[in-house]
Structures are given as C-alpha cells and as structure tokens.
Specification:
Layout lengths: L2 H12 L4 E5 L4 E3 L7 E7 L1 E8 L2 E9 L2 E3 L2 H6 L6 E4 L3 E7 H9 L2 H27 L2 H11 L3 H4 L2 H8 L3 H9 L1
Antiparallel strand pairs: 1-8, 2-7, 3-6, 3-8, 4-5, 4-7
C-alpha cells in the first residue's frame, strides 16, 4: 500500500482528525502572513499553493484528492508564511493539528520512518522542480510534469499549470497542441 494512503488510514482508525472543512471555488485556506499549524488531507477537490511577487502570482505546488497539503514552512517553524493556499474548485478537507500529528508520527518507528520519507520526497521533488525551471526548456518541463503527474492536467486549469511551469498560458497552449 502507498505509505501516504496507509498513513491516512491509520489517522482515520485512530480518530485523530480534529475537523472537516469545505471550501468553495477560489476560497482561501491560507493567506500570506498567517500562521498555520494544521495539516490537511484533501478528500475532494484541488488547491494550489502560491506566492505573490511584485503583483504576480507564482504557483509552487498543487494539492488534489487523496493527498496532504500544508504551508510546510509555517507548519514546521510555527511562524507566519508568505504562502497562499486557494481552492481551485469545491474542496473538502480533513484537518489534524501539528501536535497531534507529530505525537502520532513519533509513536512508532514505522510512523517516524513514514514522516522521514514524506519529507525526503518533498525535498527531492522541490529540488527537481527548481533544477528544471533553471536548466530545462519549457517543452521539457511540460513533458516531465505530464509524465510525473498526468492527473494534474485533468484537475488544474491551464493558467495555473502555466504559472507552475514558469511560462505563459499561451506558451503552454502551443506546447500542448504540438
């Protein structure tokens, strides 16, 4: 079983979720300058994590069904974040607080290993993305994301995918047509 799915099942069995949230399309889960020490499970829908720089939005990550989403910087250091998290469609989330989650993750060696693997995967994905943005052509970035996350193209509007890939929506449209 997928370790993320297995972890979610364990959290369900232990009854550790503290709340359920429902967000409407374009509603914000987090805004810049807010602190959040919750972790969210996406039960339905999709979201994006982005920053705003000089009035331009830069999408840095997506969350969709059967995955966790979090402003990781705020979750880890318990400080305000520059990140926004916005629902891209009607979204249902399960919520678990950091203290509860971390106590559970530290409760067994297996859980601790799962937490380490989750963090390692996030770091490796982020490093690969940064390298792609700096060194790879727009066409290659598109191909790599399509191969790695084909569901992204069913779940997420093109303008946000283009932002994530650091290209204009027009460039993405040309690449998809070719």
């Amino acid at each position: 079983m997928n370790p993320i799915a297995h972890l979610k099942e364990q959290l369900d069995q232990e009854g550790l979720w503290t709340a359920e949230l429902e967000l409407n399309r374009n509603q914000y889960l987090k805004v810049q300058g807010s602190m959040d020490t919750n972790l969210y499970w996406v039960a339905e829908g999709s979201l994006r994590i982005f920053v705003v720089e000089e009035n331009e939005e830069h999408t840095i990550r997506f969350g969709y069904k059967d995955n966790f989403i979090v402003a990781l910087d705020s979750f880890l250091n318990e400080m305000p974040s520059d990140l926004y998290i916005q629902a891209l469609k009607k979204t249902k989330l399960k919520v678990i607080g950091k203290a509860t989650f971390m106590d559970f993750m530290k409760s067994t060696p297996e859980n601790n290993t799962t937490w380490q693997l989750m963090l390692e995967q996030l770091v490796l994905q982020q490093m690969e993305r940064e390298r792609d943005i700096l060194t790879v052509s727009p066409l290659e970035r598109y191909k790599r994301v399509l191969k790695r996350s084909p569901q992204l193209f069913q779940e997420i509007p093109n303008k946000y995918i283009a932002s994530y890939l650091r290209m204009t929506p027009e460039t993405l449209s040309r690449i998809k047509k070719s």
